[in-house]
Amino acid sequence: MAAPVRSRPAGVGRNAESPLPSVPGASQEEIRRQNLGAVLRYVHLHGPTSRAELTSRLGLNRSTIGALAADLVTSGLVTEEAPTTTRRAGRPSLVVSPRSERVYAHALSIDADRLRAARVGLGGQILDLREIPRPSGMSAIEAVGPLADLVRDMERSVAGDALLVGGAAAVADTTRDPDGRIRIASIDETLGATLEAEFSAGPGFVAGDLADIAGLAEHVRGVAVGIDDVIYLHGDLGISAGIIVGGRLVIGHRGHSGKVGHMVVNPNGLPCGCGSRGCWETEISEAALLRHAGRDPSDRAAVAEVLRASADGDPTARAAVEQVADWLGFGVANLVNVVNPDAVVFGGSLRDIFTAGADVVRARLDTMPLPASREHLRLRAAALGRDAVLIGAAELAFDKLLADPLNVGVAGQVGPTASAQPSPSAVPCPSRDH
């Protein structure tokens, strides 16, 4: 059981299409394990892939790829089938596919206002998703029990030979107390102990900051694939970031980096829930947008109404969007000068604000950052929507399987009530909001 950490999958940032690096002094077994992981990671990220493509992309010979694929088939992690169509003469190359229905992880999300639990199959497919509201004042620790109930309910439909490889929880860093006031939270060791107690019979859980995990998802499967220097900005009740440099997540001391919502941009601005004044999130959050539009800042449901009114040309709503977008660009410009990323991705509520006010954001970025930091910069709206957090959590949970494919998971015994050996890294939703 891993303690709660802000972490990243070991393969994040590594180009799965590049030849494998050699490891000086590695044993044949270590090389085999590394190569098995490379093959499994490739089909996990890219989906069904022919042996011929694996040979080309991974820099291994055909016989090695064939042997590795056969091992993965025997272990029940992938299937091999002849392609349904082929354009070449001769014997077609077998297609290797992840066994998404059989091999899976638990992904939990403790959002600001809801709790979600999903079963995510190898290959990144969400197989089952449940969610319930998160009452105001419920701590992350108090949320573990209801989430475990959702997991137990999901497990009733899982086949007996399915392979559970682990789980991960993404935790929002901003919540409301019982009086409706916004409070800044953080992940601590107590949450890890609670997860360990509730899921003690399973392969284990890791936990991380919600923005970090959503950023990893966009980096692995979304708009930032192949980009190794990324700032992912997530908006809900507050603003936080997942910062990826050189393909690796920047976590800081005890995992408390990425609190970009609390950099001061307006010393004469409004008080912030952190105790400071003029923090960036007081200028770009949902509450700021509603305040400028003359709406109740606590009415999150009204955000969509303001954005629609802005798109329809309402002058008050448009002015509100432009003011928030201007501050959004102001803060991004500062981050760009510090981190010098290749891309900034806007997720959560910031996705819609960026989309509505992109011209204003870009106008700030055309002048404020240093030329060397802005000339290559790409601005992207997040692609994975609400699912990003669950997909990212699953990537954390799959990490140990991808590092050592033949020695991870518990087959035939799944869920928090079943017996298993340790290993660490709501309502069914027929349609999800992207």
UniProtKB/TrEMBL annotation:
Superkingdom per UniProt: Bacteria
All copies of domain HTH marR-type, residue ranges: 39-89
Signal peptide (UniProt feature, chain positions): none
Family label: Belongs to the ROK (NagC/XylR) family.
Name of this protein: Sugar kinase
GO terms of molecular function: DNA-binding transcription factor activity; kinase activity
Keywords of the record: Kinase, Transferase
Pfam family, one: ROK
Region (Disordered): 1-28
Annotated organism of origin: Micromonospora inaquosa
